[in-house]
Amino acid sequence: MASDSNSNLRITIESNPPESRLAELNIKCWPKWGCSPGKYQLKFDAEEICYLLKGKVKAYPKGSSEFVEFGVGDLVTIPKGLNCTWDVSVAVDKHYKFESTSSSSSS
């Protein structure tokens, strides 16, 4: 709950969303992606929503020692523009979708 970071780019997590929510998003039709345990430097050029089928991740936003942890059954929204390191302790398998149309207006 420590979210006093200078950045307004925050990862949000819905833990174990109801099946109706997953169906509404049509998650089973989204592409899949996976990775083995390790550390990955990632930059998100678009907002990503993903649903973890397997895995455990600690995501460290660039320049911060704080992390957000998510895993199996979590619906995760990663904001556009976020640079972070994923420390994957259990291999990941996820459905994902990039939001390309939503936010072209500046905030």
TrEMBL record:
Pfam families: Cupin_3. InterPro entries: RmlC-like_jellyroll, RmlC_Cupin_sf, UGlyAH_Cupin_dom. Gene3D superfamilies: Jelly Rolls (2.60.120.10). CDD domains: cupin_TM1112-like. It comes from the Eukaryota. This is (S)-ureidoglycine aminohydrolase cupin domain-containing protein. Residues 24-96 form the (S)-ureidoglycine aminohydrolase cupin domain.
